[in-house]
Amino acid sequence: MNFGHHPDPAVDFCVEVDTLEGLVEDVRAGLEKRKPVEDRIFRATMFRVGGDERAVEARKRLLEAESKIGTL
Question: Which of 8, 14, 30, 71 could staple 58 via S-S, CB 3.0–4.6 A?
């Protein structure tokens, strides 16, 4: 799966999670629409992190971001 940030898939996923964390805060502040961010989060959850430690940690952060947006 490609998010368009970096050629290395694990780094690409990590950057997408960083971006999504910011977008979730923007949704909470009313600066972004919820549905497009939810769609991006869903797409990111489909990424298979494998054994890359950075990607595994990013997966945890992604799930935290997903729970934050779900509480709005």
Answer: 14
How many other C-beta atoms can be found within 10 angstroms of the C-beta atom of residue 60? 11
Q: Are 13 and 55 in contact (CB under 8 A)?
A: yes
Q: What are phi and psi of 71, to 5 degrees?
A: -95, 5
Is 47:68 a contact under the CB 8 Å cutoff? no
Helices (H), the chain: 9-28, 34-45, 53-70
Query: Any idea which residue has 């890359």 for tokens?
Result: 52
Q: How many CA atoms lie within 13 A of 34 on its CB side?
A: 10
Question: Quick one: pLDDT at residue 72?
Answer: 65
Contact of 62 with 37, CB cutoff 8 Å: no
